[in-house]
Design goal:
There is one protein chain. By secondary structure, the protein is an all-alpha fold. Helix 4 packs across helix 10 and helix 6 crosses helix 9. It has 15 helices and no strands. The chain has one domain. The radius of gyration is 20 Å and the shape is globular.
Length: about 300
């Protein structure tokens, strides 16, 4: 009898679920560590840990790639600024004054911001369905931003933390669109190491500015463990799981796993941080997901 060497069909989906779980843990820790590190400082140590973990097995992939990196220096800089420096620093900044539940629910707007960034950078035309989906999702974002209080909307009164989280979303949209232009000769963990090595000096400057500005750092054993998690699991582990899952089932199928992030994040925030899911959260997330469905269904994707 022949022995099958193929991996079980469920394995790629388990990897995708793990990636979203690792990322959800990062959002919970970003909130939990808000008094231990400044947002840029936390992001700096996250990528230092990721670089140290990646160096032994990813550094050989960079050998002989100097010419490729120089040819694409501008693109690499844009990817580092948006994906490594700004996105997570803004997210950690927002988590200082908003709840993890709010933050992870606002993550559901990422597909819409990716559509907008594709139009802005690649001139990909938006269909009527995509525009309608964006407007519907925006209504869901507004519900979360004003905590379901119509009076706050009429007074244009929003919460600063939510605004920083929302500002982080187009940073990831720009990063994701620009990522398509990166040459496939340097990919995988080698590319991730290049991002980490290029991003940490910039983050070091930002962390120094935070320190000079009087933002305190409180290093405790729990804080060290939290930083280790963000570097090892949220950066390296999630990246590896996500890439292997996408390679096995394709990007479209993998995209259906993204709603797991707010689901995992909300549960973790309730269990570990004592946060609550309120009615406006449910209304907002339902509206956002409806908009994503309208914008990404096959009829809406046709040019």
């Amino acid at each position: 009898m022949d022995q099958k060497n193929d991996a079980p069909r469920w394995q790629p989906y388990l990897l995708l679920a793990l990636a979203n779980l690792f990322w959800a843990g990062n959002w919970v820790l970003g909130r939990a560590l808000r008094d231990a590190f400044g947002p840029v400082t936390l992001n700096f140590w996250r990528w230092v840990v990721a670089a140290l973990v990646l160096l032994p097995f990813a550094l050989p992939q960079l050998a002989g790639r100097g010419a490729l990196l120089r040819r694409n220096a501008g693109l690499l800089a844009a990817l580092v600024i948006t994906g490594v420096v700004l996105f997570q620093s803004l997210a950690y900044l927002g988590l200082r004054s908003t709840t993890t539940v709010n933050a992870v629910l606002l993550n559901c707007t990422l597909p819409l911001f990716m559509l907008l960034c594709s139009w802005g950078l690649e001139r990909e035309r938006a269909t009527t369905g995509q525009v309608a989906g964006m407007l519907i999702s925006f209504a869901g974002v507004v519900v979360i931003l004003v905590r379901g209080e119509l009076a706050d909307l009429l007074k244009l009164r929003f919460h600063a933390g939510d605004a920083w989280i929302l500002l982080a979303m187009p940073m990831w949209g720009i990063y994701s669109v620009l990522l398509k232009r990166w040459p496939r000769e340097l990919w995988g963990t080698g590319f991730l190491l290049a991002l980490a090595l290029a991003g940490t000096p910039i983050l070091l400057v930002g962390a120094a500015v935070e320190s000079l500005g009087g933002m305190p750092t409180h290093i405790t054993p729990a804080a060290v463990i939290g930083v280790a998690y963000t570097g090892l699991f949220a950066s390296v582990g999630a990246f590896i799981c996500w890439n292997r899952g996408v390679a096995a089932v394709g990007a479209n199928a993998a995209g259906f796993s993204l709603p797991l992030l707010p689901a995992f994040g909300s549960v973790l925030a309730i269990v570990f941080l004592g946060e609550e899911v309120r009615t406006f959260h449910l209304v907002g997330i339902a509206t956002i997901l409806l908009g994503v469905f309208v914008a990404t269904r096959p009829a809406a994707r046709r040019p």
